[in-house]
Structure formats: C-alpha cells, structure tokens
Design a protein that fits this description.
Strands 6-7-8-5-4-11-12 form a seven-stranded mixed sheet. It has 642 residues and is an alpha+beta fold. Helix 17 packs antiparallel against helix 18, helix 20 packs across helix 24 and helix 23 crosses helix 25. The protein starts with a helix and ends with a helix.
Length: 642
C-alpha cells in the first residue's frame, strides 16, 4: 500500500492534479473540544513523496490516526533542511558492563548516570541513607490516625459475639504505597499520598471516612472516582478526597491476569506481593503499613535499589512495559529526577517492537505529555532527553517519527545539556521543582527545555486541510503532547525569534542600541531571556568543529555572551532617569492611539500605512524616553511632510 502511494504521488507530483491528490490525503476529523481550529489527532507519519526544488528538499507527510479511530490525515508536513552544522555527534548505544541475562537481579550492567562525559555535570544520586526511617509530619500523623480510627470504628460496630470481625472493612489493613514512601526514605517531603486497601474498593472506604467524619461533626469532602480504563493502560479505579486539608487517593491492592492474545487484564483483589510485582519500578513498590507503622518491601529489591540508586522493574522489564508502555517514560523520569541508573534489561526491552508499538498506540497522548512535562520540570532534564534519545524513542514520544530524525534528536540532546549548564551559570530556575505545578518559573523551565529539545523542528511546517501553514513544533506540543496552548505558543515564539535575536543582539553585541534591543524584546515578550539563551545555544552548537563537543566549554562561552547581552540590555533600560524610564519593553504601549496618529499625519482612512506610523512612534519612545503626546505629534507632522 505504501509503495503504491509513493508511485501515485510521483506520477502526479508535477501534474496539475498534485494539489487535488494532496488535499485528498488531508480529510478532516472531529474538532477538538477545547479548540475547534486545531484538528484533534495526529499520529505516525508515512512518507508519500520527496522531491527537490532548487536547494530545498521537501517531504510531504500524511499523518495516521490515534488508536480506536479510522485512519485520517489531518496535517501534511513540509520539511526543510533543518540542521546545518559542522558538529559530528557520535551515535550512542546503551552503556553496559556485562552481558545481558534473563535474571532481573543483574545490577552490574547499567546505564551510566548522565551518560558518558556528562556524569561530572550531574549531581550525585539522591540515594537512601543507611537505617533511614519514615518520619511523619504532624499533619500526616493526624490524618493517618483518623484513617485508623475509621477502621477501628468499623471493628467496634461489626463484630460477632466472639469478637471477630464480620466484614472485610473491619479487618482492613491500610498501607501508603509508592511515591510517598520512596520520597520519605530519601529524606524528601511528599504530598502524593496513595492509600492501598487490601479488602475493599477505594470509593467504598472513602464513603466510610465521610460517615465517620459526619458522626464526629466534622466537615466532609466530596469524593471523586476515576474509573479504570484498561484500553489506555489505566487499570485501577481510584477514589480521591480531601481529609483535613490533605489530599488522599484510595485504591485497592490488585492482581492481574491476561487471556491468550489479549493485552487487557482481568482485575481482581490481590495480595500486597501481587500488587507490588505489578508496579512500574521497585523503588515505587514500597509500602508503609499504617496498622503496624513499618515499611514493607515485598519485591525484596526496593530498599536496596534506593540505597544504590537503581531503577529497575519488579518483573522482567519487557513484561512490565507491555502491560503499560508508559512505564518506559516513567522509568526515565524517575531515573533523571534522582540521577539513578537504569537497569540494562530496560534498555533491551525498549528495543522490542511490541513495547514500542504499545507506546505508539496504547497510551493516550495526554499521559505521554504529562511524563514529558515531568522530565523537563525535574532537576536533570538533560538526563531525561538523552535517555529518550538513546532509546530511540524521541520520534515516538513526539509522534513524528519520519520527521524528527536521529540527527535532530541528537542535536536536541546537546542543546538541552548546554542550555542547562547556561541556566545554572545564570542562576535561572533555582528552587524550581517538578511538583510545583502552579509556579510561573516551573512553567518557564518546562518551555525553555522543550524549545531546546525541539530545535531541530523549528523550520518544519505543517499544513491543515485548508492549506493553512502552521509550525510543526506547535502541532507537536499541542497535539502530540497535549500541552497547553500557551506552551505551544511559547515554543513557536522562541523558535521564530532566534534568527532576529542573533542578527540584532549577538551579531552586534557591543553596539546594539536601546531602540534595536527594545523593539526586539517587545516583539518577544517577557521571556526574552529564554529566547536569547536558546538562540545563543543553537548558534554555538552549529559553529563547532567536527568531533566530540566539549559541552562545558560551549556552555561557558554561551553563558558569558548572554551575561554581556543581559548586562547591556539592563544598562540601556535601567540607567535612564526614573521619570524618563522606558520600563519593561514588552509592556510599552504607543503614546498615541490610531485616531491620534491619523490626525497628526493627515490620514482620512486607516490602512497599512497606519500600522507603520504607529510602529514609528514606538521606535521614538525607545529612542527618546519620556516622550509625551505633544512631542510625538510634532515628530509625526514633521516626518509626514518629508
């Protein structure tokens, strides 16, 4: 089918039917609920044609569909020669120290932390100290005691004459599972409290909690139930509620079994061991038993892995990832967050086509985007991007495998690594953590590293059914990762201002004027510092000679250049008398409105020339800080006469 498509395309490529053929490849889909202008789904690319026109190589790509939908083509992509660099980047393979075996206990063969020469740049792993214990905060102790009171209350009301519990609720064991236990043992605080129940469903126990609070005259909370969705690898029904200002998730321990040739499991109540063995990583399969106040490690590996700084799966890696392919990205996120190593069988498993196809088709794009955002918001985004690239997962993650080439991905690895060093040198994003979702700096950090990672796509375009041209990076951020509109707009704005920033700022670092800098920064907006750094990073990487890159030296050079640029900008805009200060360039408004400009220059009707006159008044405001309306009108009249 693919071959026939290519032949048909070539046959009509230079004929009058080419446009008709292309339009037939771009049938519409249901509009996205949040934004009817953007087609809802894009997926894996199939090359339909390639042809040269002058010096530009154009590849037209039609996108397939997401799982559960009929094949549709929503975007066509025109790809230019993106990366023109002298840099020669070695193809990197998984670093191993011994042969692979089938025993998951092989801890000698690992991915190196940070990968190759990057390890000195990465902070030491956040490993567990010997004899570490769970230390509860006052609020945690209060909430956990209340949950135990709920169980004890059931015991009092539901016992036979012999004093034995007559219901599952009365003999319930409460365990906090997963991330909260892991972080507490690492000496970190966590608000991610998941309570695992061995004999009832989450919603059932949440209802009992509210009943108990009501009996005590306390305020109760609404209970939200997130239904299981095995088709999208969401296997557990979860009840969430707020108890004394602490958010809790309640979920039952589970066991899973698979019928032949089925990827959808049959769910049932399970033992703690069965529940632990079905989790993504051993470090996330630890439990804190509230009844007995002790840590439980049913895999027998979780505590040890926290001590040595290792991410591995409780079961054989391929089996774990086939069950839920998103666990591949979760493994990368946790390994990068704590600077842990990845077990070798994880690297072997991600090369398996069944795992890769599962990540393409089985996992929702929203879940992929959430993991990517977590990687970039974490303390070591350079590790996450490098590991995704090593695994050759970048195209799958960004959902444009044919376009996002390995060369582009490797360039992104270097850009993120250098960019992170520069950010540290400039003291950007200090104190920003992955979990600070409401932080403006956290959002900026995510967008900064996303723009660096996708640098290779910055000149690629996509076309909608109506032939509207949009940046491919915008499609990737909004559709492939399902991130916010403002995230996509930020990445596009960063990429589109790189050339102008280089021409105006860095090519004239010692001579640019306040007007030139002001106009450029005004066109970029508040995040002009991000654009400056990304532009300098790209320019520096492209100027490298062939061979390995000394990322530290490159980052140092870029940091010095950016420091000088920021210093000059600060001088130009802050050393003016306060009464005449221009202020923040992106907040500067024209001193005259459109009607006032028209009157000053003698225009009867608005038109394209009006915009030019308004832009001229803005230039004068940068050139002559403190200019008032009368002065601006006088200059307009003089200029209009000439």
């Amino acid at each position: 089918h693919t071959c026939i498509s290519i032949l048909l395309m070539r046959a009509c490529c230079y004929s009058s039917h080419a446009k008709l053929f292309l339009s037939s490849c771009c049938r519409s889909s249901r509009a996205k609920k949040q934004n009817a202008r953007i087609i809802k789904s894009i997926a894996h690319a199939r090359v339909l044609s390639s042809h040269d026109r002058n010096t530009t190589t154009t590849t037209t790509i039609a996108f397939g569909s997401f799982p559960g939908r009929r094949p549709i083509q929503n975007y066509c992509v025109a790809q230019n020669d993106i990366i023109k660099t002298k840099t020669k980047i070695k193809k990197r393979k998984f670093a191993t120290t011994s042969a692979t075996n089938n025993n998951n206990n092989n801890t000698n063969a690992l991915f190196s932390v940070g990968g190759f020469s990057r390890s000195p740049f990465t902070d030491p792993p956040k490993t567990m100290k010997e004899n570490a214990e769970i230390v509860l905060t006052r609020k945690e102790d209060e909430v956990f005691s209340l949950l135990l009171d709920v169980v004890n209350n059931e015991k009092k009301g539901e016992t036979d004459d012999g004093g034995k519990a007559t219901t599952n609720m009365a003999s319930l064991t409460l365990r906090v599972a997963g991330g909260w236990v892991r972080d507490k043992l690492l000496g970190l605080e966590s608000n991610d409290i998941d309570v695992a129940l061995d004999k009832c469903l989450g919603a059932e126990f949440a209802a009992k909690v509210n009943e108990y609070l009501t009996s005590k005259g306390e305020e109760i909370s609404g209970v939200g139930v997130i239904q299981s969705n095995p088709e999208q690898s969401k296997h557990l029904e979860t009840a969430t509620m707020k108890v004394r200002d602490v958010w809790l998730d309640f979920v039952n321990l589970r066991s899973e079994s698979y019928a032949d040739e089925s990827r959808i499991p049959t769910m049932s109540f399970g033992t703690p061991l069965e529940d632990a063995m079905r989790r993504d990583l051993t470090i996330n399969a630890l439990y804190y038993n509230l009844n007995e106040k002790k840590v439980e490690d049913f895999t027998g590996k979780g505590i040890e892995d926290l001590k040595i700084g290792l991410c591995r799966t409780p079961l054989e890696a391929k089996r774990t990832f086939v069950d839920d392919p998103l666990r591949v990205l979760r493994a990368v996120r946790f390994a990068s967050r704590y600077a842990f190593t990845l077990a070798e069988d994880i690297g072997v498993a991600v090369e398996d086509e069944q795992v890769r196809e599962g990540l393409r088709t089985k996992v929702s794009r929203e879940r992929v985007g959430k993991e990517v955002a977590g990687m970039l918001r974490g303390p070591n985004p350079h590790l996450a991007v490098e590991w995704v690239t090593k695994m050759k997962m970048g195209g799958i993650v960004m959902d444009c495998e044919e376009t996002f080439s390995m060369e582009m991905q490797e360039f992104g690895v270097k850009a993120v690594a250098v960019g992170m060093r520069v950010a540290m040198a400039l003291k950007m994003f200090e104190g920003v953590t992955e979990g600070a979702d409401g932080s403006e700096e956290t959002d900026r950090k995510e967008r900064f590293y996303l723009a660096l990672w996708l640098l290779g796509l910055r000149e690629s375009k996509a076309f909608t059914k109506k032939k509207k041209e949009v940046p491919l990076s915008k499609v990737v951020v909004m559709e492939s990762l399902k991130l916010r509109n403002k995230d996509a707009e930020s990445v596009v704005r960063t990429h589109s201002n790189i050339d102008g920033t280089r021409d105006v700022i860095f090519d004239n670092l010692k001579t640019f004027t306040r007007t030139e800098a002001g106009l450029k920064i005004r066109s970029i907006g508040k995040d002009y510092d991000i654009v400056f750094i990304v532009a300098a990073v790209e320019d520096a990487l492209k100027q490298q000679n062939s061979g390995d890159i000394d990322e530290g030296a490159v980052a140092e050079s870029v940091a010095e250049k950016c420091k000088e640029a920021f210093s000059r900008v600060r001088d130009e805009f802050e050393l003016v008398d306060r009464k005449d200060s221009v202020g923040n360039p992106w907040e500067l408004k024209p001193v005259l409105d459109g009607k006032e400009v028209m009157k000053a220059v003698g225009m009867e009707k608005p038109g394209p020339l009006l915009k030019q006159w308004i832009e001229k008044t803005v230039e004068w405001q940068f050139e002559f800080p403190g200019m008032d309306k009368a002065q601006c009108e006088a200059k307009l009249k003089d200029s209009s006469r000439t």
